[in-house]
Amino acid sequence: MVTTETGDGAGVVLETVPLRDDVAEEKAARLGAGSAKRIRKEQVRLLVRSGPFLVGAAILLFWIVCAIFGRLFAPDNPLSQNLLAINEAPSAAHLFGTDNLGRDVLSRVIVGSQEILVVAPVATLLGTVVGTVLGLLQGYYRGWLDSVTGRVVDAFLALPVVIVAFLFIVAAGASVPTLIVVIGLGFGLVISRTVRTAVLQERELDYVAAARLRGENAFHTMFVEILPNVLGPIIVEFTVRLGYAIFAVATLSFLGFGIQPPTPDWGADIAATYQFLAAGYWWETLFPALAIASLITAVNLIGDSIESVVIQ
Predict the structure, then answer these.
(1) Low-confidence ranges of the chain (pLDDT < 70)
(2) Which of 68, 120, 234, 292 has the greatest CB tally within 10 Å of its CB?
């Protein structure tokens, strides 16, 4: 922008006139914003037309409804024991049969979705936030911060997340908050690697250099300039890790270090009934296992669909 003086004999008027470069930059910014909106709309359109995405979303929505309203339409109280109806096979009275304590398996499967659909998403969200912040710091600053945090991340990733979670839960005690924090921090370290790689590519681009020349601080550059441009990989990581989190919660519950009885839980129910498979009571284990498999499959279908759209 330049300032010129104009006079008509009565005085001097200062007039600001935009330079061509300024006008071009403003126009390019508007075009860039419009292009980004069009890209997002096209991505959403592709998602809603994707068969795998719709199937996964339908299954996930079903379990979300069960988690929220399950106790309203469950055929029986999932905690109610009937010692006169122990290990009954599926029938009209009990569509999924009863377990070794006479509890209705269908009711426990429906209500059992509540805890896992709270713990897994919250843990994944925590891990995504931690991993995003850590990855931004590593990729932007590099140097000694990247080296030190990178070695710490490598040390934790040398062990499976479930094993690390198992060790921390043993030390801190089994509880839902502990489960969320342990799984979230474990996945946060994994997510930070992906975010770091994306930030390393972005930090060398012209818009980051322009932000530095404008005098923007590091916080603004990382979270206002770079973060919106790496949201694609972060969203993909969230959906992928959500499936792993569901499996981790179910595994820890199966081992006795996750969601504790008598709260209905798929992993804990499998642990309590799988020994009865040899006696032919297959339904007590099969239906909770199918519930876990269907939920993980749904999340993976959604994640794969989002990944294909983002990469495309």
Answers:
(1) 1-37, 161, 310-312
(2) 120
